[in-house]
Amino acid sequence: MWLYGASGHGKVILECLEAHGYTNISFVDDDKTKKDICGFEIFPPSYINPLTDFVIISIGDNTIRYKIVSNHNYSYISIKHPSAIISPRSTIGSGTVIFHHSVIQTGSSIGNHCIINTAASVDHDCIIDDFVHISPNVTLCGGVSIGEGSHIGAGTTIIPGVKVGKWSVIGAGAVVTKNIPDYSVFVGVPAKFIKYNNQTNKL
């Protein structure tokens, strides 16, 4: 099992894997100056064998995860911490990670390479597209949809039925009461538009 990305996010995924009894875990990173993390040696990505090895991208930045998936033909798995509560009537995509004490309720669909961070709550019938990051203590009420690549900041609440467009950013602690267009940055209570998300130029 390879974790692509040797940083704090990777440490949390490491402990999720260890909680499930995984022992054959290694890290790769593009930063050649990184040598060690949590006692694990860090290797270059060329050590991954796409034909036989499994990978989780352990990087919090949505655009970087998107580019790695676009540029490499790896086999990915998803992982959840044992304390997470996931409805058997929900679906979880490949490469997605679900952290400690998160809840995913019935009828919800989580895409590929998403992050459902610590103590996040995803209520019934939510749709979360690929490469989304739901930060710690976020509350998504029933029927919310989040577009590809969007980042929902820590402690945000999104009321029922709201749609957040793709590659948008919601600032920490926001309360979202209306639909959010693509490529937008919203902050505050209630959430208000402040600028367009130019980070998508990196894709």
Describe this structure in words.
There is one protein chain. By secondary structure, the chain is mainly beta. It folds into two domains: 2-76, Rossmann fold (3-Layer(aba) Sandwich); 79-192, Hexapeptide repeat proteins (UDP N-Acetylglucosamine Acyltransferase, domain 1). Helices cover 11% and strands 30% of the residues. It is built from two helices and 25 strands. The chain has helices at residues 8-19, 62-71, and strands spanning 2-4, 26-28, 36-37, 40-43, 54-57, 75-76, 79-80, 85-86, 91-92, 97-98, 103-104, 109-110, 115-116, 121-122, 127-128, 133-134, 139-140, 145-146, 151-152, 157-158, 163-164, 169-170, 175-176, 184-187, 192-196. An eight-stranded mixed β-sheet has the order 7-10-13-16-19-22-24-25, covered by helices on one side. Strands 3-4-2-1-5-6 form a six-stranded mixed β-sheet, with helices on one face. Strands 8-11-14-17-20-23 form a six-stranded parallel β-sheet, with no helix packed on it. The mean pLDDT is 96.
List low-pLDDT spans: none
Fraction of residues in helix: 10-25%
Report the structural category: mainly beta
Radius of gyration: 17 Å
* Average pLDDT reading: 96
Strand order of the largest sheet: 7-10-13-16-19-22-24-25
Please summarize the sheet with the most strands.
8 strands, mixed
Secondary-structure element pattern, one letter each: EHEEEEHEEEEEEEEEEEEEEEEEEEE
CATH topology of the largest domain: UDP N-Acetylglucosamine Acyltransferase, domain 1
Shape: globular
